[in-house]
Write a structure and sequence with these properties.
heterotrimer, A mainly alpha (665), B mainly alpha (82), C mainly alpha (100), B: 82 residues, mainly alpha, 2 domains, 4 helices, 63% helix, C: 100 residues, Helix Hairpins, 3 helices, elongated
Chain lengths: 665, 82, 100
């Protein structure tokens, strides 16, 4: 019975949004209860649907809309795990926000906007055709803009919100171009009768897309999937559209936890996972010796590069939230890397591997952000250079953040398969890249290199963060106190999941492997005949790298054995490069934004208009005549209504005369 | 602002237009000489074609319009402060 | 007055008188009265056709038209009242702010 009310999963938060928007001020606790109740309802319905469709059913409902498009719901294994994660994490963060935003006068607006955001994200996950997916995707981007610029009176927040919206817009335009191209290609395929829609199916539904993909011209398919990936690059902050994510930390920390750790940025990965059969069907032309389909190769390259690129910047940031932002970008790169590399080897299982990391990342990254929020709430500052020794006063926050840091670094015991969630998920991705390297050799090893070096840097920066914040002697005079229960209970729940979620790995993979078969789509898999036995050093390497990173940070930041001031100074060009974020903000804002667009385009247009067109024919003759003509015609408008009435009647007469003359009447 | 003569001419031109219209359509309605009585029962009674049977929707909408006009006129012409 | 033509003629003449009133008169109230005249001319037309066709639709239309004319006159007068409050005159020749 839950499957029939599946549409309520999206509609309940929408209802909460409308009610909170209009009635929020008058409700108890600033309108927080309505969204919490709505999202809890969505979570319960999602659980119900999960128990109904496990292990091999799906929920598909659709209603015709216009011009061959439809509105619909598709809940298959991929969607249901995302639904459960989104509703659960959103619920915990809402509960936390009751405490975090307790003193903010604009609380109703906050809860209304996060409620709308949750509804939009659930709409993205549930949609069964790509047009509806895009509409919900845009709505998610809008809510992100509203929430980043929540404190709109701060100029930096307003600028960050604008930048986030514009940069993701670039991605969205690419995504829309991909949809349009796809629509035309499928229409061509249908009209040439190579393929026809089944009864009751609509164009642009995922089912139809995957079946039609077999008949589309391969180079067009590559273009379409790369355009889709362009949208994912914007939304998930991959290179080169990554600049908005660190700036987006201007919003409240709970917004950062909800949007930029667990849900919105994962929409990009979800898009690639959803349309995975199309990505896997692209031809292998760019790198034939690697046997990777073209689009998946691009996905893997950009994902792997971003993972490394962002991890390098996370090493030097001094704002607690910026470090976590770069960590998010880096981990999203891991998810894209998994889709690309594992997709070439094991086919549909890649979706399982990437999604598993997505969900475990959601848990521990949201936990990290919420702990950071707890610290910021207590200390009033984001700068970790002013913190220290907080573990004595804030025990729960320190412990849960340590658990999250261990999960992020992927610490665990390999052969006994005990460890944090990050251990299971990241190890699977790194092992996948190793398998790709083994099977292809040569350039194929670059992905493994990206993954391992990024893992090392991840471990270093996260433990640097933890040590500088929680250990040592306090560097500021403020007396912090532990956060209230409404904030620490969600931390504990998330920490439990970050610890234990890893043990669901094999069940998860089995469940998601069949995802596309349930829709009737097959994905080729190039897995070798016998299971690849990895040498022990490879299995141990991720854990070794994690522990080495921990030890390095312990040595430098806890025991303070190494004097970092030689490295962390403006004299060091490498440090300058990293702290200025590879000069990306300057490039996009000043050079592209101001100089290219405004100075060149606007000023050249003005020059042509004033000097060239206006001075045509003896010194402004054209413009002067037009001006004088306008002055004359202007006198017609006297402003007296009777004149207008008389002219109207005169006009009717003239009209009738004209009609009579031309033989109309 | 236009003089009275000009206005008169325009009005007479309008009359001419109406005459032309009546004459041009004379073959459509021409020859109807006898007036058929239309009683009030046909308009407001239970027969088809009345305002309470066929045109009930327009009737209700009209009442809505009248309420809107009432409220609008009241609000516009309200004295301030009182 | 037993043929349709006479009724239509009367309606046309009344309509013209109303139109002449609109474009000539200065006072706002007289203009509103002229508008009512025009509306009633149209009503005469409607009822005439309805009678000669034996169909009630025209008269129903005329009924609605009367009601709507009443609503519109009410609003028109409300606007005139406010105009007088602001400008101390209802001489519409001088209300010409929306000009060039």
């Amino acid at each position: 019975m839950f499957s029939e009310i599946a549409a309520l999963i999206v509609l309940l938060p929408v209802l909460a949004f409308i009610l909170t928007l209009f009635l929020g001020k008058r409700l108890y606790s600033g309108g927080a209860l309505l969204p919490i109740a709505a999202i809890a309802g969505s979570f319960i319905i999602s659980l119900g649907v999960f128990f109904e469709i496990y292990p091999d059913k799906t929920v598909q409902q659709s209603w015709p809309w216009f011009a061959g498009m439809n509105l619909g719901i598709l809940i298959d294994p991929l969607a249901i795990v995302m639904l459960l994660m989104v509703t659960f994490v959103s619920l915990l963060i809402h509960i936390y926000a009751v405490g975090y935003m307790a003193h903010d006068p604009a609380k109703p607006r906050y809860f209304a906007e996060t409620s709308l955001f949750t509804a939009a994200m659930l709409g993205v996950v549930l949609s069964d055709n790509i047009l509806q997916f895009f509409i919900a995707w845009e709505l998610v981007g809008l809510c992100s803009y509203l929430l980043i610029g929540f404190w709109y009176f701060k100029p930096s927040a307003a600028a960050a919100a604008k930048k986030a919206f514009l940069v993701t817009r670039v991605g969205d335009v690419l995504f829309l171009a991909g949809i349009i191209l796809l629509y035309f290609n499928i229409s061509d395929v249908i009209s040439s009768r190579a393929f026809s829609l089944d009864q009751g199916n609509f164009i642009l539904q995922f089912r139809s897309m995957f079946e039609a993909a077999k008949f589309i011209d391969p180079s067009q398919l590559t273009l379409i999937t790369l355009l889709f990936f362009g949208g994912a690059v914007g939304k998930s902050g991959q290179f080169p559209l990554h600049g908005w994510l660190p700036d987006a930390m201007e919003g409240p920390t709970t917004v950062s936890a909800l949007i930029h750790a667990a849900t919105m940025v994962t929409a990009g990965v979800y898009l690639v996972a959803r349309t995975f059969p199309m990505f896997a069907a692209t031809p292998v032309t760019i790198a034939p010796e690697l046997h990777i389909p073209d689009s998946l190769l691009i996905v893997a390259i950009i994902g792997g590069f971003t993972a490394l690129f962002a991890a390098t910047m996370g090493l030097v940031m001094n704002d607690i939230k910026r470090v976590l932002a770069y960590s998010t970008v880096s981990q999203l790169g891991y998810m894209m890397l998994a889709l690309g590399t594992a997709g070439a080897i094991v086919g549909a299982k890649a979706v399982g591997i990437s999604l598993f990391h997505l969900i475990s990342h959601a848990f521990f990254k949201a936990l990290l952000f919420l702990c950071a929020g707890s610290v910021i709430h207590a200390m009033g500052t984001n700068d970790i250079r002013e913190m220290g020794g907080l573990s004595r006063k804030m025990k729960i926050t320190a412990t849960t953040m340590l658990i999250a840091a261990l999960a992020l670094a992927g610490i665990g015991i390999p052969y006994l398969n005990i460890g944090t969630a990050g251990f299971f998920s990241k190890d699977a991705i790194i092992e996948g890249t190793f398998e790709l390297g083994m099977e292809t050799g040569g350039w194929g090893w670059i992905f493994y290199g990206f993954a391992i070096v990024a893992a090392l840097l991840t471990s270093i920066y996260i433990f640097r963060l933890w040590f500088m914040t929680f250990t040592g002697t306090p560097r500021s005079e403020r007396h912090p106190h532990e956060s209230p229960n409404v904030m620490t209970r969600p931390l504990i729940i998330l920490a439990i999941f970050a610890l234990l979620f890893g043990f669901m790995q094999s069940g998860f993979y089995l469940y998601l492997e069949k995802n596309f078969e349930l829709m009737g789509v097959e994905i080729a898999s190039h897995e070798s005949e016998e299971a690849l036995v990895l040498p022990p050093i490879v299995v141990l390497m991720p854990v070794i790298v994690g522990v080495v990173g921990f030890l390095i940070s312990y040595y430098i930041y806890h025991l303070k054995k190494l004097n970092m001031s030689r490295f962390v100074s403006s004299g060091n060009p490498l440090y300058r490069l990293l702290i200025n974020r590879y000069y990306e903000p300057r490039i996009s804002a000043d050079i592209i934004g101001v100089k290219l667009t405004h100075n060149i385009a606007a000023q050249s247009g003005e020059f042509v208009d004033r000097k060239i067109i206006d001075t045509l024919i003896i010194d402004n003759a054209i413009s002067n005549t037009l001006f004088r003509l306008g002055e004359l015609v202007r006198k017609l408008q006297t402003g007296v209504v009777q004149n207008y009435a008389s002219v109207t009647l005169l006009g009717i007469f003239l009209l009738v005369v004209l009609l009579k003359l031309t033989g109309g009447i | 602002m236009l003089s009275k003569i000009l206005n008169l001419i325009i009005a007479l031109l309008l009359l001419a237009v109406l005459f032309i219209a009546i004459d041009a359509s004379i073959d459509i309605w021409g020859g109807k000489e006898d007036v058929k009585e239309i009683s009030v029962e046909r308009l407001a009674g239970p027969e088809r074609g009345g305002i309470f049977t066929d045109f009930i929707f327009s009737f209700e909408l009209l009442s809505l319009l009248l309420i809107a006009a009432l409220i609008g006129a009241l609000y516009i012409a309200k004295k301030e402060g009182a | 007055m037993s043929d349709l033509y006479s009724y239509l003629l009367v309606a046309a003449i009344v309509f013209t008188i109303g139109a002449y009133g609109i474009i000539t008169q200065r006072s706002g109230i007289k203009i509103l009265m002229s508008i009512e005249l025009m509306l009633n001319a149209a009503n005469i037309n409607l009822v005439a056709f309805s009678s000669f066709n034996g169909d009630t639709a025209g008269q129903v239309f005329a009924l609605f038209s009367i009601a709507i004319a009443a609503a519109e006159a009410a609003i028109g007068f409300a606007i005139l009242v406010v105009l007088f409050r602001v400008r101390d005159t209802i001489n519409l020749d001088n209300i010409n702010i929306l000009r060039w």
